[in-house]
Amino acid sequence: MICACKKISLSMVFSMLLAGCSLQGDVPFFGLNFPAVFQNAPDGKAVKLQEYTYKKWWTRYEDPLLNTLIEKMLDQNLEIEAAAARSLQAQEQISQARGALYPSLSLDSSASRVATPSGAGGFVGGGAIAPGGAGTGAGFATSSPDTIYRNNYELGLSASWQVDLFGRVRNSITAAQASLQASEAEKQALVQNLITQLIGQRVTLATLLAQIELTEQTIENRERTLESVERRYKLGSEQASALEVRLARENLESAKSQLPPLEADYAEALYTLDILLGEMPGTNDYFALEDFPLLPPPDRLTVPPPLALLDRRPDLIGAAYRVEAAQANIGVAMADLYPNLSLSGDYGYQASELNNLISPEQIAWSLIGNLTAPLFEGGRLRAAVRLREAEAKELAANYAQQILQAVGDVETALKREDELRNQLSGLDSTLEQSQAAYDLAYRRYTRGLVPFTDLLEIERRLFQTRTQLLQIQQSVWQARLNLMLALGGDWLDTQETL
Q1: How far apart are CA 278 and CA 231, in angstroms?
Q2: Strands 22-23 and 104-117, bridge-based pairing
Q3: Which CATH fold would you assign to the domain 21-100+167-335+381-497?
Q4: pLDDT tens track for 1-55
Q5: 208-223 residue pLDDT tens
Q6: Fold for the domain defined by 102-117+147-163+339-372
């Protein structure tokens, strides 16, 4: 039974006392119109559900080192450990909430010894007792100096139960369960993000190593060019001048100056990889070029419809569960507005002699029912309800915003990858032409048919094209990683935990 009313009649109170009522607030729904397909999807059409499964999609590239690194990260990464601990906390919160459904039972025992005056006056005030027993004011008044001692022993069970009339406990359980689901989804989102980062570092290292190798080859080529120019200049050849020698030296130093930043970037990428693996930065310094071959550009993939993101993106799933938990928390706050019924009872033994405590004649028991209702709280309780409602509205708005952002992430990644692939295709042709132009210019230079400055310019363009090609290959990979992260899905076959 769901009560959405703000006022409640006396007859409704009694009916709900008998049947129970679960109160729960309403969260606004932000209507979003999803297109049938993504604007930038390949071929511009939707695909069947079974066509876009991405379980361990990185294994398709048959890179054993990458697979090993991912497994190691999943086992050692400290952020994943922290996320797992948050899930455990959420599980214990469910246990705590469920515990409130049941009565509490405790074992009580006590022993006391009381001394009282034998007179009938007893304790009448706080004054002092005069010698001989006479009171000195409004203090202890006694009719006899004798004192009576009494012993009292108690042993028994105490039970109490707060009846969940209006669903306070049930809504607390619902909120805790939704929070657990949100924690699990957020953990999966974290894992996907970390996998994406690791593969990105894998590609970054491969790209940097290829750039380092290219730069070292360029340095060797320019050293040979400088030696050739200097030899010709020393021999007095008309094809070599002092200016050309200086230009060759400047060209060589320019190439050498590009090597230290690449090596620094490579070391930084290794440190980042160490942190992802849960290890001290600097642990893994054994990678060589053959260990990190530059992976080929990823193949195209089928893309699910935009509406599928709601069930595929773990961050969206987690946000939806956060809204559900907030809605249940409204019910918790609303339950405090209505009467509260509690039952308590005691059963045990009372005696003045310890050896007579456990006997049928000493049995004592009590049963108490308590019904309380708030009359005036200065607006505190209703303010608590409005606070929970505002929190739920905030989370609902954030959830809708995340949905829009998720669709935008996919569209952006699809568009960027498509444009980068076109650029990559053009660079392949440019590199072929640049290499042919350099080979021709070098042959003609050796024959004295091309100025040395022209050869240097053509060689610089060839180096820039090769460098740009490596960078675009890395960008294509990064666009694909962004797309996979934006599409979500069950990468590790963990659907049963959500």
Answers
A1: 54
A2: unpaired
A3: Outer membrane efflux proteins (OEP) (1.20.1600)
A4: 333 333 333 333 333 333 344 555 554 556 778 888 888 877 655 444 444 567 8
A5: 989 999 999 999 999 9
A6: Outer membrane efflux proteins (OEP) (2.20.200)
